[in-house]
Write the structure tokens for this entry.
Amino acid sequence: MLGNDAYNTKTGTNYQALFQGIAAKHPDAIMVGGLVCENGGQVIKDKVAVLGDNSKVKLLLPDGFTTQSTIDDSGAKIAEGAYMSVGGVPVDKLTGAGSTFISDFTAKYSPDAVDPYTPYAAAAAEVLLKAIEASDGSRASVTQNMFGIQLTGTVLGDFSIDENGDTDQGSMTIYQAVSGKLGNPQVITPDKSLVETG
């Protein structure tokens, strides 16, 4: 890592001076942490203006940017090639109970698109209900029962939550801005040694 800089999220802010300082370090890639609604479109425009398009210096964006509005706000040509990540797998890749859940959800609510985190919210509700069922009725007992819980047949398949509150599901999806849309979804599961914290 060559550096870590904060950026002002206020609308109307120009980030070219920030990127000129970064350019002096000759990065291969830039990772922007934040949300597209925090003036993200302008951040992307200024990154490309100073460092070049996303084939020259790759742009890596977290789930706060993994939305069509990122491409729309910055401009399709400017966003082209940017990588955007989201935890989990795309809704159209879910199988079993997950696929049934998405079909039922779509039939009932007729959304334009199903948010990638919708099935994860459903699974979180399943975790909470199971923890409540095993509790003595107190908040402390419900909380305690969420740690070490194991679930089978959920919308996300079988999974457990460890003593730290982490699941054993480590997949994520990487999208790329392609021709003005989120495209090329690739599901990856990083080795646990790459994501461990101290």
